[in-house]
């Protein structure tokens, strides 16, 4: 296989890892108004991702760096054309990160509520806009002969892009609520299981619509992996229904695992529907960016491949070790004791 095609799938896997890992971070953040009945409960929720959220977020940095190195033409068109939504994502991630670090610096209720709001907004905005961005990449955007994006922000806010955006928001929300149920105890855990049941129906409806719409778009153009996209969509649907069933049965671990599989195969559905393009042009098919015309030289891709072979396993081992160290539930009793000791 040509290394350009290999790196198309490697970049896709990196984004899969990011959406699965930072996806439940987004969901946990969005769950604060619904599950955090008091400050102890909100601390319990935030502490579920406290040791890992920054590590999860580094996946998007790695994915972006690999995109830049492996497909510079794609990177240039994407980041210039999608500048405003990507800037909004960056600002939201900064606000969320700052809130995690500064929320506990004062005992003021107003202070904490302000940072809680920033966590919610800083989680919901990326969850929505990442879906809008990926949806537009799959559907195609206006690109001229010089490979410049000729649309605007309103161009990106089209029905399909917004549908995919709402789908990713709901999937991440549900994924995060599963994680809260898995990692907490007491009332927060019970409320998380109840909230997941309420989220199930709209999530299933939007996810099903996104899969069907995506396959229809791919079927309307050259799509050699259409069969694989259909298969991935089917697996995502089964995994989503399995996660809902597991949550009803109060099997938190299985619900979270099936929710993670849902996101994995949902992203793969989009990625395989995109192949062999990286950014189709709706202006003229001849202006489309493909894997071949947007990639770096073979020499560059060879160096990147060796670097990935050496360092990627080390990163995965470190991340696995981190999750193993912080595998225990976040107990409300332990937080209450810490508050008593602090005062």
UniProtKB/TrEMBL annotation:
GO terms for molecular function: electron transfer activity; metal ion binding; oxidoreductase activity, acting on diphenols and related substances as donors, oxygen as acceptor. It comes from the Bacteria. The chain crosses the membrane at residues 6-32, 77-98, 119-140, 160-179, 199-219, 225-248, 255-279, 299-326. The keyword Transmembrane helix applies. It is a multi-pass membrane protein. Pfam families: Cyt_bd_oxida_II (PF02322). It is found in: Cell membrane. GO terms for cellular component: cytochrome complex; plasma membrane. The keyword rRNA-binding does not apply. Keywords: Cell membrane, Electron transport, Heme, Iron, Membrane, Metal-binding, Transmembrane, Transmembrane helix, Transport. GO terms for biological process: aerobic electron transport chain. InterPro entries: Cyt-d_oxidase_su2. PANTHER family: CYTOCHROME BD-I UBIQUINOL OXIDASE SUBUNIT 2 (PTHR43141:SF5), CYTOCHROME BD2 SUBUNIT II (PTHR43141). Belongs to the cytochrome ubiquinol oxidase subunit 2 family. This is Cytochrome d ubiquinol oxidase subunit II.
């Amino acid at each position: 296989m040509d290394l350009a095609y290999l790196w198309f799938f490697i970049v896709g896997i990196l984004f899969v890892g990011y959406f699965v890992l930072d996806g439940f971070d987004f969901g946990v953040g969005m769950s604060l108004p619904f599950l955090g009945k008091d400050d102890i409960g909100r601390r319990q929720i935030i502490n579920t991702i406290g040791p890992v959220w920054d590590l999860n977020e580094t996946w998007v940095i790695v994915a972006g760096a690999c995109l830049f190195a492996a497909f510079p033409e794609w990177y240039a068109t994407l980041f210039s054309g999608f500048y405003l939504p990507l800037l909004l994502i960056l600002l939201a991630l900064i606000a969320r990160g700052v809130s995690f670090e500064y929320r506990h610096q004062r005992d003021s209720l107003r202070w904490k509520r302000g940072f809680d709001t920033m966590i919610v907004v800083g989680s919901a905005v990326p969850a929505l806009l990442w879906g809008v961005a990926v949806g537009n990449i799959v559907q195609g955007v206006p690109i001229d002969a010089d490979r410049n994006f000729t649309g605007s922000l309103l161009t990106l806010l089209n029905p399909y892009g917004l549908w995919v955006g709402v789908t990713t928001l709901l999937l991440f929300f549900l994924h995060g609520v599963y994680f809260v149920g898995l990692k907490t105890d007491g009332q927060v855990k019970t409320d998380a299981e109840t909230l997941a049941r309420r989220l199930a129906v709209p999530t299933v409806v939007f996810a099903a619509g996104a899969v069907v719409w995506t396959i229809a778009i791919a079927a309307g153009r050259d799509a050699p992996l259409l069969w694989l996209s259909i298969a991935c969509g089917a697996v995502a649907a089964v995994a989503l229904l399995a996660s809902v069933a597991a949550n009803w049965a109060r099997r938190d671990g299985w619900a979270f695992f099936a929710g993670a599989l849902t996101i994995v195969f949902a992203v793969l559905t989009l990625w395989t529907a995109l192949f062999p393009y990286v950014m189709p042009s709706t202006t003229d098919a001849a202006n489309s960016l493909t894997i071949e015309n947007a990639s770096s030289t073979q020499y560059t891709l060879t160096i990147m491949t060796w670097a990935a072979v050496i360092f990627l396993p080390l990163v995965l081992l470190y991340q696995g070790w981190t999750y193993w160290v912080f595998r225990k539930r976040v107990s409300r009793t332990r937080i209450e004791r810490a508050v008593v000791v602090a005062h």
